[in-house]
Structure formats: C-alpha cells, structure tokens
Amino acid sequence: MEILLAFLIGILYASGIYMMLRRSLVKLIIGIILLGNGANLLIFLLGRITKDKPPIIPEHSKVFLDGFADPVPQALILTAIVISFGLQAFAIILIKRAYKVAKTDDLDQMNTTDEYA
Amino acid sequence: MINSILLYPLLFHFFVAIVALFFWRDTRIQRVISVAGSIIALFLSILLFREVWYNGIITMQSGNWKAPFGITMVADTLSATLVLLTNILGVAIAIYSSTSIISERAKFGYFPIFHLLLMGLTGAFITGDIFNLYVWFEVIIISSFVLLTIGGEKPQIEGAVKYFTLNILASVIFLTAIAVLYGLTGTLNMADLRLKIALVENQSLVDIAALIFFIGFGIKSAVFPLYFWLPASYHTPPAAVSAIFGGLLTKVGVYAMIRVFTLLFERSEFLDNLLILVAVLTILSGALGALIQNNIQKLFSYLIICHIGFMIAGLAMNTTVAFTGTVFYMIHDIVVKANLFLVGGFIYRLKGSYSMRQLGGLYQSHPKLSLLLLIPLFSLVGIPPLSGFWPKISLITAGLTTENYLLIAFIIFGSFVTLLVIAKLWSEVFWKESEPISFKANFKSFHSMKKKEQFSLVFAIALLAFVSLYIGFGAEHIQNLSSRIATELTTPQLYLDAVLKTK
Amino acid sequence: MKTLILKTASGYLLPVLLLFSVFILLRGHYLPGGGFVGGLVASIAFVLHAFANGLENTKNLLRIHPGFLMPFGLAIAFISGLAPMFLYDLPFLTGIWFDEPLPVIGMVGSALFFDTGVFLVVIGVTLTIIFTISESA
C-alpha cells in the first residue's frame, strides 16, 4: 500500500509540474490541482497509515480502546483541502477573466507586464 | 489574562474586517472604519510590544491545549517588533487608501480584504506552529490575490496570473516540507520540532526538508532564481496595494526563513554556502534589474529584490552581529519600501505618469513636497545619518569577522547601485525639464482633489517618513532592539523555555 | 437543464438536503460531520435547485445575496472564540460547555457556535463562487 501510494504521489507531482510547464492557462490550473493533491497524499502517507482504526472514541467510553490512526495528518489534509478549494475557485475565475482580457490562453503572450515602459 | 494581549492586534483586525463586511455596500463608512480600526490596532500592538519588551516572551496556547499538542502563539521580540511595524504600515496605508482607492475598486471589498491581509501578516509573525504558519501564509496570499486583481485591468490580471502561479507553487512546496518534517518527527510545534529534529537518526532527510523549506520561502521572499513573479506583478495594482506588498509580503518570507534556519535546523556548511551564493546573486540581479528600469514602481520592485539579498546575507553569516544587521535592515526596509511605493503613487497623482522619461520638473513645481519625498529616497540609499546606513555597519562588521569578503563586496556594490539608481531617479523626475503629460480619462489628479484628500495622501507619506527618520536618528534604540532580537535568535533556549515550560 | 423529473425532485430534495445538512452540523463535534461538510451539503441543495429551476428562481428563493451570510458566520465564529477569553479568562477558542444537555441537540458548547459560523460562511462563499461563475458563463 505504502509503495503504491509513493508511486502515485510521484506521478501526481511529476504530472502536476509537467502541466504547469505547458503554456495553456487551463493546463496551468490542472497542474496546480494535481500538485496540491500530491502534497495532501504525501502528508497522509508520511503521517503513517493505520488501517481500520479511525481516531474516534467509541460511545460509552472515555478513552481509546486500542491503537488508533494519528488524527493530525487528517486534520492537516482537511485544512489543506479547504484552502486549496478556495484557491482553485479563485484560480478558475482568474483564468476566465485573464482569457477575456488578454484574448488568449497562451501564457507566452501575456507579457504586458514585462514591456519596457 | 495577560497572555491574551498577544492576540489583540490579530483579533482586532479580524473584527474590523467583519464590521467592514457588514457595510459591504457603503464604501464611505468602510473608509472610516478602516482608518479608525488601524489606529486602534496600532495602539494594541504598541501595548503588545511594551509587554514583550519589559517582560520577555509571551506565549498563548489557543484552545487551552498544552504545547506541543495545541497551536501555540508566541511573541518574542522579533515577532512583536514585526507586528508593530505591520500596524504602523497599516495605519499609513489605510489613511492613504481612504483617499486613493476609488469607489469602483472599494466596492469589491478592498477594505475588508485589506484588514484580512493585515490579520494574516500579524498571524504569520506570532504563530509558533509550522502548519499554522502555512495557514497564515494562505490567508496572506488569498487576500493579496484579491487586492492585486481588484480593478481587473489587463496588466493587473496578467501580473496576477504570474504572482498566483508561483505563490501557489511556493505553498505546495512549503506543504511538502511540512509533510516530510511531520513524517520525521511527528510534531508541528516549532519549539518541539527543534528538540525532535536533533533526535532524528537520518540527518540527511532533515537536510532535504531544510532545502525544501528554503525553496518554498525563497519563492515567497523573492530570492535569486525564484523572484520573477515580483517585478511582473508589483507595479500593476494601485500604489496603496503595492506599498503593503512591497513593505511586508516578501519580508514575511524572510521572517519565515530566519525563524526556520535559526530555530528549527542546525546550520550546515552546505546551507551556509548556498545562502551566501543566493544572497550574492540576489543582490546582483536586483541591482542590475533596477538600473535599466524606466517605470518608477518597477524600479522599486527590483530594489526590493536587491535588498532582500542584504537580509539573506546577514542570515548566511550566522553570527549575532550579522543577525543584528539583518533585523535592523528588515525594520528599515519595511518602512522605507512601503513609503517608496506610496511616493511612486503620489508622483503619479501629481503628474499622471510612472515613466521616468516623461516625468520631470517636480522640484521646480512642488519644492516643499519634493523635500518630503526626498526623505524615503535618501533613507533607502543610506546616506548617514538616515536609516539605511546603520544596518550596513553591522552587516559589514559581521562580514569582516567571519571573513566573508565576497558578501562585503556585494553589499557595498548593492548600496552603490542603489545610490546610482536613486540619483538617476532624482535627476530624471525632480530636476529635468518636464514634458507635458496628458492625463488619462477620468484621472483624478492631486490638484483636483479636495484639501482633506490632499492632506491624507501627504500625511501617510509624512508618517512613514517620520518613522524612517526616527530609525535613522534614533538608531541607537533600534540597534539595541535588533541586537536583543539577534541574541534571542542565537540562543533559542529562551524560546523553547517560554513555549514548552509554561504552566 | 430542463428535465421534469429533476425539477419535480428538486422541490422535495431542497428541504430534505437542508435538514440533512443541519443534522451533519449538529453531530459534528464527536462524530464525522461538522460545519464545513454541513455547509457544503446545504450549498449543494441550492446548487441542485439552481440546476433544475434556473439561477434566477434560486436567487428569488434565497431573497438575500448569499454573500451576506459571510459576515454573519464570521461574527458568530469570532464571538464563540472570544467568549472564553472575556467570560472565563481562558485562552482564545477554549471550549466552554453548558452543564445540562439540551433535548435533541445534546451537549451544547462554544464549539457548536463556532461550527455554526463555519456553516454559514461555507454556504455564503460556495454559493457566491458558484453563482458568480455560472452568471458570467
């Protein structure tokens, strides 16, 4: 399982970076999303995977009965997902706007800011 | 409970943002709330600074969960100083933008977002938890995206795409570093991390985590190969937004770097050499970039990069004296850079252009205002006794004692180029005969403003100029402050004791 | 999308989903659930309604702009965080609880108010984003 996840994370990072290096705006966003998912899975993997033991105290009990998964990585991932949700929504609106204003989705042609003026 | 004072500036900015959100439609009320709120927040952060100055490090465990399990907020002298500076800028920029931000922009939520940005900055400075630092970074970048794109002009949107991409990349890299660190140590509290990192068996993994942190913070603080988003975006938004970006956003990256490389990681020779190399190249590329620019705001953007190099240089040398220089430079730079962007915006209001070739004759037409604008410009150059001069003494002294002659050479080179650039700007913008510049349609020039509006623009610049004059003439106090911060940075035991042994 | 089945169903689904979102919100402290998920479910209810009946109808149904939920949500969350600071002199965000459980809801504490705030903010933000995107499409 860990090996599989490690490969998956590697693929997500690699394809995310590949997509970000394309010139299209849409691929840029896809790249960002893939990278973000890779990072979330990385936290999950490096936080040690414990199967079938959710960190929830059963009813009528005050403490955990046996070993349990570390809840911190899950909390971190949830936070990171919420944040990337907001960022991606913003990104999508931004690229729509950029496409409208610049009339192109080629990043190389978005060079107004580099003009010498 | 005295420890709660730590959170007051942060919570107050949140409060102001909420109140401003309630008045979403009425930008007039938002302006008043924003100015009044920033002034009160400044007062609260002065209280915090006083408390830290007299009684040492304050910590607070949010939710009453004991460290290292809960999120700890820590204000040591460095944090308190930076919070204070953030709020000084907050007041000046709130006053400036209460006039300069037109209602078409303000109605998209400029003022609430402005206060959320200040809240994020304050939070990033006082948090003692590495993941919480990530969250504050996200608060900062989300608010800065909105501020950067409000208005939606073509250069703004294009600049925002670049800014956005690289900053998100930085966040992902930062998150990756946190993941690696958490996998190695199983803790997120910065004080606890220091103890646990020393116990990790495979130290080369720790070095890798350190490098990933360096890349993530490097993008944020715009160091040499990672700075390209900065000159592409900082000159596009209104001057008030550029000012808060230029003053504080890159400095948060530098702050995070200082924190991580003094508190978390033991320094290795490789890392020191890397920092030296990066510092040198950052100074060089920022300086060369600034030499050829024609747009004033863009010129200042390159100077930001150049001077980030000075701070990294101090960090690279890793002695108390060098840290004193870095911290002093940071204090000076935050105030002066923000003021420079305000000055740029002010020149635009006067003459209707950012282009140095077109501008001219400002000294002839407005001699008194020119003298005011002279203060931040010459403070930046560091003509003694103005504020830019003093930190360089510490930096160069540290360079001599650690025998980093390369760094000394480049610090002097960077200062020299800064002098050259500012002298060029002065002669082009203030002395040269001016060409007639036609104003854009519905451009609101300084002369067509009411007396009250004119006053608020001048007041904001004068306030920051006064602070930078104080840093220059009261250098003794700032030097004391910086050396105290540097001592705290080189003896992290104080920080550990404060965080882990309270109660 | 104009299908009669979805249109008819959405009229019944809207209240059911909203009720479900409140259920998720309330069970959130000790069991999986909470303000964020609840808020998402609630906004899905409205998005589904908008799919079936058109954006204008959903807006008329809502009466206020969803963005106005944001300051209210933030204010509720903020006050629930401040309460322990000013009432009991405890650190920010410390959980304080009423002694007696309420019927149906169970134990009530400041965490519930915080979650309610999150719930409102999430509905406000999500609906604002989705309405903005679909309006300009």
Folded structure, characterized:
The complex is a heterotrimer of chains A (117), B (503) and C (137). Chain A has helices spanning 2-20, 25-46, 71-102. Chain A is mainly α and 117 residues long. Chain A has a single domain (2-51, 68-105), classed as Orthogonal Bundle (Helix Hairpins), CATH 1.10.287. The mean pLDDT of chain A is 87. Chain B is mainly α and 503 residues long. Chain B has one domain (2-436, 443-500). Chain B is globular and about 70 Å long. With 137 residues, chain C is mainly α. The model of chain C has no long low-confidence stretch (mean pLDDT 86). Classes of the chains: A mainly alpha (117), B mainly alpha (503), C mainly alpha (137). Chain B: InterPro entries: CPA3_Na-H_Antiporter_D, NADH_UbQ_OxRdtase, ND/Mrp_TM.
Number of domains of chain C: 1
| End-to-end gap of chain A | 56 Å
Largest interface: A-B, 40 and 39 residues
Element-level helix/strand string of chain A = HHH
Helix content of chain A: 55-70%
Q: Number of helical runs of chain A?
A: 3
InterPro entries (chain A): CPA3_antiporter_subunitC, NUOK/Mnh_C1-like
GO cellular component, one term (chain A): plasma membrane
Pfam family, one (chain A): Oxidored_q2
Organism (chain A): Flavobacterium tibetense
